[in-house]
Design a protein that fits this description.
Distance between the termini: 35 Å
Helix content: under 10%
Strand content: 15-25%
Mean pLDDT: 87
Length: 95
């Protein structure tokens, strides 16, 4: 039997861990709360339930753009929130 949870949804995590990469990356977003939906942005703006929902079958691609002698100069800030009916939304995670 499944128990009912009235607390907040777990804060999303990302794989790979945030960092600097010299190549294009695909990012997986995870939530420890079963049945939660993760909504995210890749431009640093605050995510809401209207933001795109993470789909584990269509991973977001963060393009690495090479700037010649300067190397890879592209930066992304992913922000994510997890929601589930009947529970408070998670904290916003920033990667």
């Amino acid at each position: 039997m499944e128990s009912t949870h009235s607390g907040a949804v777990a804060t999303p995590t990302a794989f790979p861990e945030p960092g600097t990469f010299g190549v294009t990356q695909r990012v997986t977003l995870l939530c420890a709360t079963p049945g939660a939906t993760i909504h995210y942005t890749a431009d640093g703006s605050a995510p809401t339930e209207a933001s795109p929902a993470f789909d584990p079958y269509v991973l977001p691609v963060l393009e690495a753009i090479n700037d010649g002698d300067r190397g890879v100069t592209t930066e992304y800030e992913i922000r994510a929130i997890a929601v589930k009916p009947g529970q408070a939304s998670s904290e916003v995670a920033t990667f």
